[in-house]
Amino acid sequence: MISHRGMAQWNFDYDASVLKTMVGGDSSLDSPRLFVENFEEAYAFLKSYGFDLHDPKQEKRTWYYHMRALAFLREKILEKGEEIPEIISDPKQLKDVRNLLVWASQKEPSDLSRWSCAVLRVAHVFVHSENDLFSFFAEEVQNQILSPIQACVVHEPDRIFLRHPFSADEIKLKLFEVKPFKTSSSEVLKMLAKPEVVALKVLDKIGLRFVTENLFDAFQVALFLADRHLVNFAHVIPDQSSNNLYPLPLFLETLKELCDLQDQGNPVNFATMNNRLMERWLDRSSSDGLVRKENSFSDSEYRFIKFICRKLITIKKPSSNDVFSFFYPFEVQIMDEASHLRNQSGASSHLRYKERQRKAARMRLFSGGVVPSSAGSSNGTPGGIGGGTNDGADHGTSNGSGGRGSMSADNSQGGETHRIGSIVSSELPAANSLSSLDS
């Protein structure tokens, strides 16, 4: 903090990363390092963050997120032969989660600081991912969003179609899917891959996909959902919509032509409609009218109609007639069968999409995608970090920051560091091991 010292001296040694995050618009995940010099500051930081280590249940939660981060790194990020150092992965050697904060605050980068940084980054994203309203009301949210729509999807032995229970109108479907619930790991990968994405901006935990027989019916599905009040268009989030399936202005123009044709006594059937749509598409002079929300990981050839709508969820309070409400988003994707088949192959495939996300997340967690050494030494300190025993030596460089910081550390390569050992807390009991966690 900038503070006055005496009559003429000011302390200008402050943590710029905090201002860059709070005022400059940077993500805390991309801050250079933490500024936590000792266990006392680490305790204060974690308490402000949301975990009071004096509370055994909250301390246990920090070990849970430590475990989640390790599992994610191993399953999603690390490649064959890459291992997390035991001093960080083994609770018996780590001893106290505050060690990670202190190590992530080293002024000069080291393998230990980079590994601490990576674990804290992932743990931070898991904390945000698993503490939203969906985590507590998943059943109610899914039921109130999905059930009314699913009730209109009729499955027969030889066909699937959309039909409202009180209407004879129907739209033939080739496929209807409730997208697999976006798991925490999938959500964390997305947030790590995209610096602009935070938990509040993950809008597709719940998703539906309609695949129609033809282009015309793709637009019919959207109208069906609105006309039957399954989706309220007033709750659609405008800047989240995409349509690179067929230009809406061209579609509306073609509908007017078909309407005029029908008014003149000419029969119009599905073949006529789709042929005219394709003729107009091939004759178009530009791609005006196509709208695609930017997604650096999606292939440009992935074609669909997509929108994000919100549903007002109502929860009845236990032992009371009172209720509370909140909005929750869900995604709707619509495409014709030909586009769906193209989307399943090549660069548009889901597996390639996920691999592009994984590589971006790896680059963000480890500078340049280079994973630090995991070699260990006999005294429990990773090789290349510096030897020595835990003799109470300095565990950080004073910078007048007062313990402020973010849940990340410097990812740059090279540099030496202070001697770091396994710090044993003199302020709190030893942390619980993972074996004590509830299954």
Q: Mean pLDDT score, rounded?
A: 78
Q: What fraction, in percent, of the residue positions are helical?
A: 25-40%
Number of helices: 14
Query: Largest beta sheet: what is the strand line-up?
Result: 3-4-5-6-9-8-7
Task: Report Rg.
Answer: 27 Å
Tell me what you see in this structure.
The protein folds into two domains: 3-129 and 362-433, no CATH class; 137-350, no CATH class. Helices cover 38% and strands 13% of the residues. Mean pLDDT is 78; it is low at 376-439. The protein has 14 helices and nine strands. It is an alpha+beta fold and 439 residues long. Helix 3 (56-77) crosses helix 7, helix 9 packs across helix 14 and helix 11 crosses helix 12 (270-283).
Structural key phrases:
single chain; two-stranded antiparallel ribbon; 7-stranded mixed beta sheet; elongated; disordered C terminus; 2 domains; 439 residues; 38% helix; alpha+beta
Give a topology summary.
Blueprint (H helix, E strand, L loop, with lengths): L2 E3 L3 E3 L4 H7 L16 H11 L6 H22 L8 H4 L1 H4 L3 H6 L7 H19 L3 H18 L2 E4 L2 E5 L6 E9 L5 H10 L13 E6 L2 H13 L14 E2 L4 H16 L6 H14 L21 E12 L6 E14 H7 L6 H16 L74
Short account of what is shown:
It is built from 14 helices and nine strands. It has 439 residues and is an alpha+beta fold.
